[in-house]
Amino acid sequence: MDTNSRATRCRPERPATDVNGVPSAATLKGHMGTLGLLFTVLAFTAPLGVVFGFLSVNISFGIAVPIAFIGVMLLMTLFALGFTSMSQQIPRPGAFYTYIGEGLGRPLGLGGSFLALSTYGFNIIAALVFSGIGVNNLITSFAGGSGAPWWIWALAMLVVVWILSYFNVELSAKVLSVALVIEVCAILAFDIVMITNGGPEGHSFAPWNPANLVTPSFGLLLLFSIGVFNGFEATAIYRDEVRNPSATIPRATYLTIIFLGVFYAVSSYSLILSSGASRAVKDAGADPAEMMPHALLTYIGGFANQVIAVLLVSSMFASTLSLQNILSRYTHSLSVDGILPRRLAAVHPRHGSPHTAAVTVGAVILVILCGLIASGAPASDLYGASSGVAFYGMLLLLLLTSVAVIVYFRRHHEGASVWKTCVAPGVSALAIGAALLTASLNMDLLIVAPPAVVAVLLAAGYVMVVAGVVTALTLKRRGSPAYERIGRRAG
Question: Which of 162, 130, 135 lies closest to 148 in space, CA to CA?
């Protein structure tokens, strides 16, 4: 046999690249349907964690939490009208990165992508820390104590999701679907028990009365109600991995918003019933962490807390896996455009996954987590700070996207529906802007830390936006082809 021929056969095949060195086969592959996509993004929201850990905080700001969730559901639907219009008009992956870039220009688009990376990064750190705390609580509920530190379990969780993210997204979707269905059924069981029982005072219309929204704490109630809808926007990130994206993405987006709105409204009403409408706000304000455990112990039994401890761990696992997948796809998009190293744009030939980006993201998260562990900071402080910054960053992303939708359609499509592309995103921008202002003025409620630390963390999101803008302008000044690619415009 010819020596050159043998050498050619033995040499590893390198992926084809275009003239700029970007892999030409950089398109992700998958065949998720509406339900698969729905479960994937719902897992990110960790509904059990929200019901168990956050609804009582919402209730502490006023009795009208259920009707507030219905209102926020309508508000997010208005946002989705513009968001999904962009997804149909711009058939490219990238979500916030792509849409902000199309509407507000490449520099702000890259700034939005850097903000998204940091926001989802803080989210996954919060989920990992909470997972570590959750496993220790689980062991304590069954065995009475745990000798292992929280970070052992957090690292184990990271390793598992790291491995799963390497494979086709449909494998993750199947795992997430099982975890999500179990936790939703558990919460529905609690809701059924409470609605059937009625609690100590019976049913009340007060939580559903819009007039009860008019309180001095309305801004905070709006802020925290919007916060738990975090995640529905991830539908557009999977554009290349779903069947018929022009129909699947809007459908999954609206279903996610409707499910979360109704689910949280009913669950918050059930939690209010457990205390009674006249006492719920006081009980929630006195000790929000104990409101749900007390309700479970009173109306279902001590074993319920053990079941919830198990499901909380599975819920945070599902959320962590979903976040790992989202971060991998943002990294992949930036790599396709040449902003990040082009090697990260590789797509697995069999799994169709951004495997190189997934491995890299996992490694970066591992390094950050190890640094936080070495700092010796309490787990509760790490979780509170990470989730607070992620919450704030998501509000900023939603605001930028709402404005980008309006600008894009006014500039490029004068005949587009005014309702979908101007009025609806305009209303959502005003409401989200109000929530962002409220968050800026009340960061001590989001992040429990010294004022200097709070100020630094508050500035983190804006720093990421500025870093993206400066990077884009630098690329433009140098005449780099990467500048023209920003927003997945090529590749």
Answer: 135
Q: Dihedrals φ, ψ of 353, to 5°?
A: -105, 160
**CA 116 from chain center: how many Å?**
10
Query: Using alpha carbons only, what angle is made at residue 32 by residues 29 and 36, rounded to the nearest 5 degrees?
Result: 140
CA nearest neighbour of 95 among 245, 224, 225, 243: 245
Question: Exposure of 171 by Cβ count < 10 A (0-12 exposed, 13-18 middle, 19+ buried)?
Answer: middle
Q: Is 60 helix (H, G, I), strand (E, B) or coil?
A: coil
Task: Give, in order, the Cα–Cα distances in Å from 127 to each of 69, 166, 200, 211.
Answer: 23, 19, 35, 36
DSSP secondary structure, 308-344, as one string: HHHHHHHHHHHHHHHHHHHHHHHHHHHHHTTSS-GGG
Q: Which two tokens stand for residue 168?
A: 């086709």
Residue spans of alpha helices (H) in 413-423: 418
Domains, the chain, ranges and CATH? 27-118+172-313+380-485 (1.20.1740.10)
Question: Whole-angstrom Cα distance, residue 400 to residue 418?
Answer: 19
Two tokens, residue 369: 């987590």
Could you read off the pLDDT of 31-87 as tens digits, one per residue?
Answer: 888 888 888 888 888 888 888 888 998 999 999 999 999 999 999 999 999 999 888
Amino acid at 399: L
Structure tokens at 354: 């951004």
Confidence of residue 15 (pLDDT cuts 50, 70, 90): very low
Residue 317 near residue 189, CB atoms below 8 Å? no
Both structure tokens of 325: 């997948």
338: left (phi over 0), alpha (psi -120 to 50) or beta: left
483 HSE (CA, 13 A, CB side): 14
Residues 337 and 106: beta-carbon distance below 8 Å: no
pLDDT for position 295: 92
CA angle, residues 105, 111, 116, in degrees to nearest 5: 120
**Identity at 283, one-letter amino acid code:** D
**213 and 67 in contact (C-beta within 8 Å)?**
yes
**What is the DSSP code string of 155-223?**
HHHHHHHHHHTTS-HHHHHHHHHHHHHHHHHHHHHHHHHHHHH-TTT---SGGG-GGGG-STTHHHHHH
Q: pLDDT at position 26, please?
A: 64
CA dist 417 → 351, 402, 420, 422 (Å): 39, 15, 5, 8
